[in-house]
Amino acid sequence: MGARRPQRLRDGSRMVEFELRAENSVPVWRHRVHPILSVRCLSGVTDVFVRVGWAASVEEYADRHTVRLGFDDEGEILQQWIDSDDYKALFAPDGVALARRLARARTLRFGFTPFNASPTVVTFNVSGFDAVIQSVARTCRWKP
């Protein structure tokens, strides 16, 4: 898992971020993207998001998109994730809960529907995430 060292921002807050590239790329319209899973603490807020590299399909609520999560051999969980400002990333609704769940998993399957493309799934090997989550938890001062 790629790590960025903790750093101080202009407002004095700390940030730490970990990134993990998907095991596979996926087709979107006329090219392919290779999504990246990110977990970060920024200004005391824990975010888990996937840089999908392409806008997600249009749904009932313009800023929310259905994603399908699967951990290890478990079944899928449907969630509504929020768009980034550039429409190329999707943010989990509860970053701390998802980061804690990732720490107990070996693999994450992430399914979404890109704009103007078929539904797709990428896989992330999150083994070892339990070791790096401590830095995020300390920086964001998680409650036990």
Mean pLDDT across every amino acid position: 90
For the record, the CATH class is Mainly Beta
Number of helices: 2
Calculate the terminal CA-CA distance, rounded to whole Å.
24 Å
Task: Note poorly predicted spans.
Answer: none
Report on the structure:
With 144 residues, the protein is mostly beta strands. The protein has one domain: Invasion associated locus B (IalB) protein (Immunoglobulin-like, Sandwich). It contains 2 helices and 11 strands; from the N terminus they run βββββββββαββα. The protein has a 9-stranded antiparallel β-sheet, covered by helices on one side. A two-stranded antiparallel ribbon has the order 3-4. A hairpin with a 5-residue loop joins β1 and β2 (14-21). The longest helix is centred in the C-terminal third of the chain and has 12 residues, at 129-140. The radius of gyration is 15 Å and the shape is globular. The two termini are 24 Å apart. The mean pLDDT is 90.
List the helices and strands and how they pair.
Layout: E1 2-8, E2 14-21, E3 26-28, E4 31-33, E5 36-42, E6 45-51, E7 64-71, E8 76-83, E9 89-91, H1 95-103, E10 107-112, E11 120-125, H2 129-140
Antiparallel strand pairs: 1-2, 2-5, 3-4, 5-6, 6-9, 7-8, 7-10, 8-9, 10-11
Offer a few descriptive terms.
144 residues, Immunoglobulin-like, nine-stranded antiparallel sheet, mainly beta
Can you give me a brief rundown of this structure?
The chain is mostly beta strands and 144 residues long. It contains two helices and eleven strands; from the N terminus they run βββββββββαββα.
